[in-house]
Amino acid sequence: MLSHFNTELSMTTESIYFTTPIFYINGNPHVGHLYTGVAADVLRLFNKMTGKESYACYGTDEHGPKVEQAFKTSKCSNINEYTDQMSIKFRDLMSLANITPTEWIRTTSEDHKKVVTWLWQRIEANGHFYSKKYSGWYSKSDEAYYKAEEVNNERAISTGSKVEWMEEECVFFRLSSFKNRLIEYYYQHPTAIQPESKYNETMGLLRQDLPDLAISRTMCNWGIKAPNNPGHTIYVWLDALTNYLTFINRLNKKNTEDFKELGSMVHIIGKDILKFHAIYWPAFLMAADLPLFSQIFAHGWLLIDKSKMSKSENNVVDPNGLLHKYGVDPVRYYLMKGVSFGSDSNFSIEELERIVDADLADKVGNLVQRVLVFCWNKYKKTLSARAEDYSEQILKDWDTALEKAVNAMKNHKITVYIEEIIKAVVQTNEYIENQKPWKLEDPSCTMSILCLCTQRMAIALSPVMPSTSDQIIKIMGIDNANLEHWNECKEIEIAKKPSPLFKKNAELNSNL
Ligand code: MSP
Q1: 304 pocket-lining for ligand 1 (C-beta < 6 Å)
Q2: Which helix (H) or strand (E) covers residue 106, if one does?
Q3: E strands, 193-335, where?
Q4: Among 186, 190, 255, 301, which is 20 to 30 Å from 277 by CA?
Q5: pLDDT tens digits for 181-231?
Q6: Measured between alpha carbons, how far is 125 from 127 in angstroms, rounded to an integer?
């Protein structure tokens, strides 16, 4: 039935591995973290819907001075108690948002430590480390050294964080020797970093001086010990990035050394951590003779009054409260539709409420109510489409919308995907206005077409709003929201009058 779509859309058996950055546990989760988490979930579910084996990895980044510092100011009696408590908070948030990670990697877990140690030894055996005394301006919060010209008034110019003069004996990674290989690789793989602006930013960074990287620390004990370097802890970014390899090992249920799954791995990250993923990570992989990831997608930031929502800005919004008040699917929908994926956007409760009312209550919810309640009143069942119905313009409009939406998703344009589907929902509501089924002597033909439209909407929106879609497709007798069911329409008894899917905000707020 999907024959006129290009073949990539038809069910395939390929695998795709999405990753989110593992979250720092030096503070409570905020909406910015939820945003990355929802995006990876939507992409995983979308790919699953097109027939790919799709996986998504989440987790917590638990080592390093920031976490050690946060533990010291907590009420916990030991650091393990602190990390356990904090990791659970992030995991619980993801599950509250109906996100199901394939794996949850904690950098304090034993299997992860083994992979990090293995990677270190492999890079060392390949001759890419050396030891040297190091001194420079160090920012504890960025966990990075800065050059003198990058510092002004004891603050890093790029991030504004406080820096202090440090001296330590470090193991260095020969990052500079990978500069040309990285440039060459990205020339040959121009879509390896998305959006294009981030590809250009990476190329710009690579054209500048690329100094070797201090890869061990003696000042912070809280981390994985560097093999053969007593008193040295592995740099937290090498530790953290390796979680992507731990993920692969967990999936394979054994230790592998080829990590070929990297070739189908898409790293979803925020734009603030582009350098670590687009420069350090592939250099580490090259140094260990491992394959590179398939793609990095760097999304923008959620802003509050033009500043990044972050703990250090003290402007964070509690995601748990938001999910409890507005419901999981409306929040997921707002984050993906209202915050254009790939760009920065202001986070605003007014905009969330506006979008929930305008799109969900007035468009999506309205369509479901009109179609299914009408079917309930008149037939007590849904109606299945007949062969001749498929030539009806509104169904062709849905086919076009899906095709455009799917093409957008190939470039991870989640917001465009949703917009295309909503356009078709609007067209369907107009179709109802024009057809006026309530005035027809025999509305069965119109209603069978509308049942199919409603089902298509539920399937298409399922990666974004899985439980709402589930409710609709269950009423319609479909087991799974999957593109295979796009054209399948069953005649099935409706057990009870369908209730409205979304509450308008005036109603929500009046219940408080
Ligand atoms: N621990 C590192 C990642 C290591 S991955 C090998 C880290 N952690 S973080 O907790 O600071 O950020 C996790 C993710 O949340 C990042 O992708 C970051 O960009 C994202 N966000 C944090 N605040 C955000 C916003 N205000 N808006 C959108 N995303 C934001 O970095």
Answers
A1: no
A2: strand 103-106
A3: 193-194, 213-214, 216-217, 233-234, 265-270, 295-299, 302-304, 307-308
A4: 255
A5: 999 999 999 999 999 999 999 999 999 999 999 999 988 889 999 998 989
A6: 5
Determine the atom of ligand 1 nearest the C-alpha atom of 61: 1
219-252 burial, b if ≥16 CB within 10 A, otherwise e? ebebbbbbeebeebbbbbbbbbbbbbbbbbbbbe
pLDDT of 316-333, one tens digit each? 889 999 999 999 999 999
Task: Using the predicted structure, report yes or no on whether residue 12 has a pLDDT greater than 80.
Answer: no
Four-CA torsion 341, 346, 347, 351, nearest 10 degrees: -90
Residues 6+ apart with CB under 8 A from 376: 494, 496, 497, 498
Cβ of 142 closer than 6 Å to ligand 1, yes or no, is no
Enter the tokens of residue 461.
């929106």
Give the C-alpha distances (Å, rounded to integers) separating 323 from 11, 14, 223, 333, 465: 33, 33, 34, 11, 13
Task: Check pocket membership of 240 for ligand 1, CB cut-off 6 A.
Answer: yes
Q: Is 344 in the pocket of ligand 1 (CB under 6 A)?
A: no
Pocket of ligand 1 contains residue 269 by CB under 6 Å:
yes
Report which protein residue has its CA nearest ligand 1's atom 18. Answer: 270
What distance in angstroms lies between residue 21's CA and the mean position of ligand 1's atoms? 6
Q: Measured from the CB, is residue 36 less than 6 Å from ligand 1? A: yes
**266-288 pLDDT, tens digit each:** 999 999 999 999 999 999 999 99
Which residue's CA is the closest to the ligand 1 atom numbered 22? Answer: 32
Atom of ligand 1 nearest to the CA of 303: 26
Contact status, residue 361 vs residue 504, Cβ threshold 8 Å: yes
User: The whole model's pTM is what?
Assistant: 0.92
DSSP state of 217: E
Which segment of 13-17, 233-237, 259-263, 273-277 scores lowest on mean pLDDT? Answer: 13-17
- Which atom of ligand 1 is closest in space to residue 268's alpha carbon? 17
Atom 5 of ligand 1, nearest CA residue: 21
